Amino acid sequence: MSVAHRALQIRLPPLPSIKDVIRLYKLRALRELSQNFLLEPRLIDKIVRAAGNIQNNIVCEVGPGPGGITRSIIQQAPRKVILVEKDPRFLPTLELLADACKDKVDIDIITGDILHTDVAHFIPPDVKVGWNDPPPPVNLIGNLPFSVSTILMIRWLEAISRQEGAWSFGRVRMTLTFQKEVAERMSAPILHKQRCRLSVMCQNWCNVKYKFDIPGSAFLPKPEVDVGVVTLTPLKQPIIKLPFKLVEKVVRQIFSMRQKYSIRGAQTLFPEEIREEMALKMYNIADLDPVTRPYQITNSEFGRLCEAYKAIITEHPDLEKYDYRAPKKKVITENLDEEIM
């Protein structure tokens, strides 16, 4: 029997089921933290299998909760597991797991919000590879709370674009759960009903694969929607090779009027008095039909629009500072009543 085969036989000592753990520790999912516990072992194992072979890998799990997915990860014999959990109520259950496998797998439990936690501090430096090399033996896995999933994904995409955080070690892969609608948006091709800003942003920096659905009935408490499991592998080169903030700004504004002609959204990139002129110039440079709808624009065509916008703000630097979402300045006239009288 090979060493690799023996490693796959690692099993945890007898432990109470996740359902029993929840009852023993009097745990309940908090609505304000968008918590939903997945209790079905078959589905939990399916999520972990979607990450591929994680044996001897460094695995960072986001929001482990009572530890259902954590157990499945441990059984795949990773080198190290990093758990980032915001809710301190789950610490006893996670410490129970860490103690049960202390001679088999190294486990770090980090109490904190993933939005403010740089997991790079806990990843061993010897796993680092070059960006153009195959992905490093590092995986991010998580059943993400619905309330932070999109915000977190955008932050991670920016980190990928800068090759920072976990991605300073190379093209670290992710296996994550999202509200089904969000998962569909991330992977949506052109013309898809869910095609949106998130589609373009995710696909610009990652190879996105929608793996499978999990029915809401498999969770406790049952959410009102089903869940989609998505894997993301950073690309060696993004489709649009421009700074993250510039790409995000152009894509966001164009999709701000999703059902209208795409030039209508592009106009909001510029001050009102020159809006139509500059947007038309942008589309002429990009060689794109202004009446194209946002969801009809391919990722490479968005690249041309971003390059056109960059050319315009290079020629007119003050336009880069314009923000359509910024509060409009109010004109204050002193003693207006006196003047009228």
What does it look like?
This protein is an alpha/beta fold. Helices cover 37% and strands 15% of the residues. It has a 7-stranded mixed β-sheet with strand order 4-3-2-5-6-9-7, sandwiched between helices. The protein has a two-stranded antiparallel ribbon with strand order 1-8. Helix 5 links the parallel strand 3 and strand 4. Mean pLDDT is 89; it is low at 1-7 and 330-341.
Please describe the structure with a list of short key phrases separated by commas or semicolons:
7-stranded mixed sheet; 37% helix; alpha/beta; 341 residues; single chain; two-stranded antiparallel sheet; 15% strand; disordered N terminus; disordered C terminus; elongated
| Percent strand | 5-15%
Instruction: Please give the order of strands in the largest beta sheet.
Output: 4-3-2-5-6-9-7
Mean pLDDT: 89
**Secondary-structure element pattern, one letter each:** HHEHEHEHEEHEHHEEEHHHHH
Q: How many β-strand stretches?
A: 9
Q: Briefly note the structural class of the backbone.
A: alpha/beta
Query: What is the share of helical residues?
Result: 25-40%
The coarse overall form would be elongated
Describe the main β-sheet briefly: 7 strands, mixed
Distance between the termini: 98 Å
Low-confidence stretches: 1-7, 330-341
* Rg over alpha carbons: 24 Å
Instruction: Work out the oligomeric state of the chains in this entry.
Output: single chain
Helical run tally: 13
